[in-house]
Description:
Blueprint: H1 8-30, E1 33-34, H2 37-57, H3 62-84, E2 87-91, E3 94-98, H4 101-124, H5 140-169
Helix pairs in contact: 1-4, 2-3, 2-5, 3-5, 4-5
Amino acid sequence: MPPAHLPPLAIVGIGLLIAWRIYRRVRRLVGRQHFRPVRAWMSLILLPLLAALLLLGSAVHPLRAAVLVAGLGAGALLAQLGLQRTRFEVTPQGLFYTPHAHIGIALSLLLTARVVFRLAQLYWLPELLTEPPDHFIRSPLTLLILGTLLAYYARYAWGLIRWSRSVVQTPP
């Protein structure tokens, strides 16, 4: 039986979904945001758990584990840089911050480019459809990008939580 070919309509649908998600993410990254402790805590708990699961899954493959750890380190450093360039505000309406847009947008576009590249591979090389579904996540390039994103958003969330606590504890 020949491998299935990804229909063009599916490619267009997936492309539109990706474009919409990029638009939503970029919109969130470039403007002033209200600090939401629940969102920050969820990022701080769930993203490291996901990173640990990925690391555990790639532990038997030294290259994959090393690439993931490198991505985690890069993401943590980028988050520190992003936090230093974030504008924080305390107002009567609450706590607000304006993230440094360039880093978040670049990371989002990097992940998007990886997904688009994979979709293009699936379109032009339909034999890849016969590979196991987790083959994409096992790629060292994908692990590097995911590690960077996971560490960036987790470390950024930790920075936001620390900032909010320091502001709340400071007397007016």
